[in-house]
Amino acid sequence: MPYRKRVPEFQAVIMAGYGNGLYPLTEESNMPKALLPIVNQPMISYPLAWLESSGVTDVIVVSLTSGSKKLGHYLDRVYEGSLHITMEVVDDNTGTADALASIRDKIKTDFIVMSCDLLTDLIPHQVLDMHRSEDPTVTALFFEPNKGEGGPSGSSKVKEVTQFVGIDASNSQLVYLNNSDDMDSEEFSLRLSLLSKHPVMNISRLLQDGHLYVFKRWVIDLIVEVSHKRTMASIKEHVLPLLVKSQHQRVLADREGVTKAVEASMAANPNTQKLALSLSTTQPPMDDEETQNGEWKSAVNCKAFVLPKEVHCGRANTIPNYFEVNRYYTKITDKVRNPGATNQVQTQVGADSLIGDDTKIGDRSSVKKSTIGSHITIGKNVKIVNSIVMDHAIIEDNVKLEGCIICSGSKVCEKSALKDCEVGGGFRVEKETTARNEQLVDFQEQ
Amino acid sequence: MKIHTIVSQECMSVGDAMRELDAKQLIDTDFILVTGDVVSNMKLDRVLEEHRARRQADKSAIMTMVLKKASPLHRSRAVGDGSLFVLDQASKECLHYQPVKAFKSTRQDRRLTMNMEVFDKHPEVQIRNDLIDCQVDICSVEVPALFTENFDYQDIRADFVHGILTSDLLGKTIHFHEVSDIYAARVRSTQMYDAISKDIISRWTFPMVPDSNLQAGDCYEFRRGLVYKEKSVVLSRTSVVEDKVVIGANTQIAEMSVLSNCVIGKNCVIGKNVKIDSAYIWDNVTIKDNCIVKQCIIADNAVLEEGVTVSKGCLISFNVTIGANTTVPAYSRLTTLAEDADEDSDAELVSEPAVVGATGRGRSFKEAEGSDDSDEEIDPKNKLVNRLAYDMTALHLEDKAQEDSASEFESETSDLEEEEVNPAEELDREIAQTLERAFKDGHTVDIAALELNTLRMASNSNFHEMRKRIVPSVLKNIDVTAKAGSGKTVKEILVRWGPLIGRMIHDEADQIDGLFILQRACATLHNDFTSAKAIFAPALRYFYDEDILEEDAILEWYHDEKSNQGTEIEQKLRGSAAPMIAFLEQSDDEDSDEEDEDEDDE
């Protein structure tokens, strides 16, 4: 027997985008989105750990040119996990589908695509098992975002587009997907033929796309096709809706090359399912009556995995969400909350806060509901509530921070009072500044 | 149980009945509303409990509908009129109701449409196409009053439920109770009659089955193979009773007859060698030897002579006699009522030997036309599908013309196309229609211009697009060969509609653009140069005279290279303008000469 390399079941692709919703945290002066700290750990380490626990061994991280150096450094030098990580760099302003199309040759098996900002407690095999057992074209994760505790909303309010997600209640097939933007604002309308195929359909406006997809191998060919036709082609906006519609609309499936892609993959890998069933003692599943009537049946099958409500899931894609995720993980982390407690005099650190290593906190300061990074100097009589302070920042005496994000290397001088502000990387907040709902960033020529 | 019967002559619908109840003030508590055709074995106590609890908590919950879960193609779901419900599973509230027709002729029929506002209160909804509407409703006292308030409500679902749910003012809610393990269905059509009868025989409706002998005088016994037989039935030795048969008292069945899947009433006489399958034969029917009866209903006192064949889907009414050796065509409906019986009861029945045989008695029944005075046109096909023993293929045979919408699955393709109507084409069509109306009804230029401008704004278009469409449409009306006075000559049309084109032209750039469009339109309308010129030259002249096109623009156009490109005719048309250009250039010179002279004078 010739030696055969073990073929992994899934490859994983992590999309490390720019993070438009996180401006100004993702400015060049601070760090790329994937490295933003969540509970003092880079964001991307969470999806990596998740993938590792799912048994995936090969991961491709797709990064934009900007920020690729810092991310590359992290993955090469700092990351300690056992995954085999390859980094691919694509131009800025590349859509997610375009980015995938560019790494087509590296995709050899069914693949998982996820965003670097997805943090979830979901046990990986639950969603992967759905893909294994039901054999769909794509399995997409949907979750109902937790109601935030209020608090800082961030000054850059990115209005989330609500999505209408229709799922067949009997077999969790994803049958309908529409952005509220594209729809008539007065009327909700749905084809009846869809309802006769899926008599019990749950339509939800609460569910959000988790940006975790498990695709069949052949979908990569379709993605390449789609990315040829459009500029800034995205998985969420173009590929997924196309697949969902192709389940029911033959004309569309033919026109957009879905049918072609399926047939090509069928020819390349003849379905072994039939053979397996004929050898098995299990009864083959009965063919649907409908297929016997010679009716067209799409080769595409989309499934939605709806996260149970009690399982946490969050996407740190906007500033409010970033806050939310940070707060949640700060609460449940098992790290030492205040490693330098012994050297402090009359400091109060709340039980729902976390202080990094080598951070000095001056006398009579208090920290509540906040995440403080490492190597930070906090002066005397400072009050920090509901905030995130990243590494190497300096907070001087008598500063009050509420609902703020202080990026790394920045300095807040004495007696400043900031509320709901984001302070960009390396920025210096002059003393006695009072600001509310502002983004304090160095002006940069574009 | 005490039963009150209320007779009302004017009641034509549920709505009328409810108004009648309200007027007579007969109801002073919450009540259960059931239609007379419901067959069900459900226990209502749980529904009532739920309803009461809900009413305690929320006074606006005025009604609880009982809905039964089934598959969309369940036989006790009527094919012709399904219903779609949009529900909120958390609050058990019904949010939207829409009836579904079997044949979806319009785009509206093929879609579920509901108000977006539903999602504001209920972000998660469930759309159900698998529910049987039992029409068992627990209503609050307000319901009859609401019917009185809204005097146009007729149907309890299509009008009342829909009206309440879509009304912003009433603020009432309608809830549902979903049941799955009981039987409930309505006998709304002969098809449902068939389906429900089969369900009863198969004991789905237990305890309401024949051998419960609920009616006084019944004495059915239940035998193997779902056969129910009265004690007094006379079965001959060689007759065969297969599965699922009900035979009433004193019925006699002679030698060699075969019965399967059928119901036979009391006092029937079935002859020798008769085959009966899936038929419903009521009381006192006589079926003589060698008849074949399939998938039909035969009412009391009917007589089938020897050798009659009744094909599927027939309804044979009271007292009809069918002569020997006749074959009754499929889906016939035979009656002994004389035509116009209600007008003149003495009218003699005229039998139709073609359908009932030479010695028969009866005629085929035609529905009185125009009796249906509802506002909506009901697609006749939607009525047909509710018939007994209906199937799609039969419909195909009868009516080939309806292939366009035969299958609801075909609709997808057309639907897809519809969704992607090109806005430019849309505008084309709208403009063409507007102009057509204007030409035909003789609108004034003002009105036509107003309409067109509205269209332009509605479609977010510009004047160039408008000119591109209006100019050819106007020129199309010109008949080059028409005589003066016919209203079709170049001059008459231009005088009438030229100003309309003028309304679409504002500055010099518009004028030049207009000229190009005029040139192209003339060239495309007529293939030969002479007729194209016959329009182009006078049009140019007219527009110049009316100051719609100014000389600067005409000169600009003439000297523009683009005007001398394009098709042969287009080029020739430009050539034909040469004399006018020469005239214009000359007059231009004269003007300047005059000016020069003036200067000289000073």
TrEMBL record, chain A:
Residues 344-432 form the EIF2B subunit epsilon/gamma LbH domain. Its main location: cytoplasm. It comes from the Eukaryota. It is found in: Cytoplasm, Cytosol. GO terms for biological process: cytoplasmic translational initiation. InterPro entries: eIF2B_gamma, LbH_EIF2B3/5, NTP_transferase_dom, Nucleotide-diphossugar_trans. The keyword Nucleus does not apply. One of its GO terms (molecular function) is guanyl-nucleotide exchange factor activity. It holds the Pfam family NTP_transferase. Keywords: Cytoplasm, Initiation factor, Protein biosynthesis. One of its GO terms (cellular component) is eukaryotic translation initiation factor 2B complex. Residues 12-145 form the Nucleotidyl transferase domain. Acts as a component of the translation initiation factor 2B (eIF2B) complex, which catalyzes the exchange of GDP for GTP on the eukaryotic initiation factor 2 (eIF2) complex gamma subunit. Its guanine nucleotide exchange factor activity is repressed when bound to eIF2 complex phosphorylated on the alpha subunit, thereby limiting the amount of methionyl-initiator methionine tRNA available to the ribosome and consequently global translation is repressed. PANTHER family: TRANSLATION INITIATION FACTOR EIF-2B SUBUNIT GAMMA (PTHR45989). Component of the translation initiation factor 2B (eIF2B) complex which is a heterodecamer of two sets of five different subunits: alpha, beta, gamma, delta and epsilon. Subunits alpha, beta and delta comprise a regulatory subcomplex and subunits epsilon and gamma comprise a catalytic subcomplex. Within the complex, the hexameric regulatory complex resides at the center, with the two heterodimeric catalytic subcomplexes bound on opposite sides. Belongs to the eIF-2B gamma/epsilon subunits family. This is Translation initiation factor eIF2B subunit gamma. It comes from Mortierella polycephala. The lineage of its organism: Eukaryota, Fungi, Fungi incertae sedis, Mucoromycota, Mortierellomycotina.
From TrEMBL, chain B:
Residues 417-594 form the W2 domain. SUPFAM superfamilies: ARM repeat (SSF48371), Nucleotide-diphospho-sugar transferases (SSF53448), Trimeric LpxA-like enzymes (SSF51161). InterPro entries: ARM-type_fold, eIF2B_epsilon, LbH_EIF2B3/5, Nucleotide-diphossugar_trans, Trimer_LpxA-like_sf, W2_domain, W2_eIF2B_epsilon. CDD domains: LbH_eIF2B_epsilon (cd05787), W2_eIF2B_epsilon (cd11558). Pfam families: LbH_EIF2B (PF25084), W2 (PF02020). It is found in: Cytoplasm, Cytosol. Keywords: Cytoplasm, Initiation factor, Protein biosynthesis. Residues 405-424 have a biased composition (Acidic residues). Residues 360-379, 399-424 are annotated as: Disordered. One of its GO terms (molecular function) is translation initiation factor activity. One of its GO terms (cellular component) is eukaryotic translation initiation factor 2B complex. Belongs to the eIF-2B gamma/epsilon subunits family. Component of the translation initiation factor 2B (eIF2B) complex which is a heterodecamer of two sets of five different subunits: alpha, beta, gamma, delta and epsilon. Subunits alpha, beta and delta comprise a regulatory subcomplex and subunits epsilon and gamma comprise a catalytic subcomplex. Within the complex, the hexameric regulatory complex resides at the center, with the two heterodimeric catalytic subcomplexes bound on opposite sides. This is Translation initiation factor eIF2B subunit epsilon. The lineage of its organism: Eukaryota, Fungi, Fungi incertae sedis, Mucoromycota, Mortierellomycotina.
